[in-house]
Predict the 3D structure of the following.
Amino acid sequence: MSPIIINDPLYGFISVPPGLLSALLDTPEVQRLDHIRQLGTSSFMYPSARHSRKQHSLGALHLMQEALTVLSQKGEFFFEPESEGAMAAILLHDVGHGPFSHVLEHDLVPGVSHEEITLSVMERINQRLKGELTYAIQIFKDDYPKRCLHELLSSQLDVDRLDYVNRDSFYCGVQEGNIGAARITKMLRIVDDRLVVEHKGLYTVEHYLMTRRLMYWQVYLHKTVVAAEEVLRAVLRRAKHLAAAGDTLFASPALAYFLYGVHTRESFWDSDEALDHYLLLTDADLLCAIGVWREHKDTILSQLAKAFYERRLFKVEVFDGDVPPAQVEERMAALRANVQQQLGVSAEEAHYFVSCRKVSKEMYSADGAGIGILQRDGSVSDVGQVSRIVHTDAPDALRDSKIYVFHLRES
């Protein structure tokens, strides 16, 4: 059997090996990722950021292949089921994402993360394939003896991050995002079952960490992007409120299941029904419903739907993360009072149009498994101890925190 060859704008040709990997690519669970945007609402700020979770998964698969090849050339030995399991795990690592990726992660089903859903989907596929994903599941769960394989999949320098920083910057047109993923994979080594980077790759690792920090504040957490996220969440909250009150809402069967049902972490896992409906959801379900809700008789839902569909987003005020909570709450109370007067809504309903979100991001954390740098003498040092840019002895310098206050624009 021949491999499946896919042309990719970042890496050229991606080769999906025949057998298990090709079979996984053809599953409904992976094909569904073609209909889920990698960057959620980022296209509100960066119109070309419309690439899919499937594109990212294929890119991460390619980098996993490259990393395993490099490590093998440097004397590391992996049994074929191990390397195939690592590749299968990275290809499937995002199958648990819902519509608009991270945006609605805890809104559809409170308390259930996409990683948990991913594991459940992998176990379901494993049953269909009669155990062929056993290695992949062990690696995904970090239960496999060779922990370096899990670090390739999930760590502070994994192939998942290397691809999404590269890919997201490419599609957003943010030129600073070219992190040299190929060079980093070439510099990988394994020491005491730990993934490390050769000393000559230090500058590339520094560039990667700085670029990832830039991408968070310039792309993922740009105020226009988070404003669109907040409007989308408000739309869903109002729709669920109306559904609970017995109102009729246009929705696909899968979306209606989550709008009209009361779902908790416990109920989601009680049977296969919830997961079956979840795996039918894509961005299209939400976009189609929101388009129709623009004409709904409920003025709050229709106004929120129009705000999202027609890009009339909330205004955003940005505060430093250390601003006293009382100051933020005072500002929000004043904004809610304005909304009540402007729209003639109740104090409770004003919360749909005024909200707050605090976000903190670390450039790098030395807690737990950091990024190891292999020195010339064979010792391994944490990047925070050898880098002049990443100083782990000054953690506050590596952490950024902001408070976003969202509110309706004055008419």
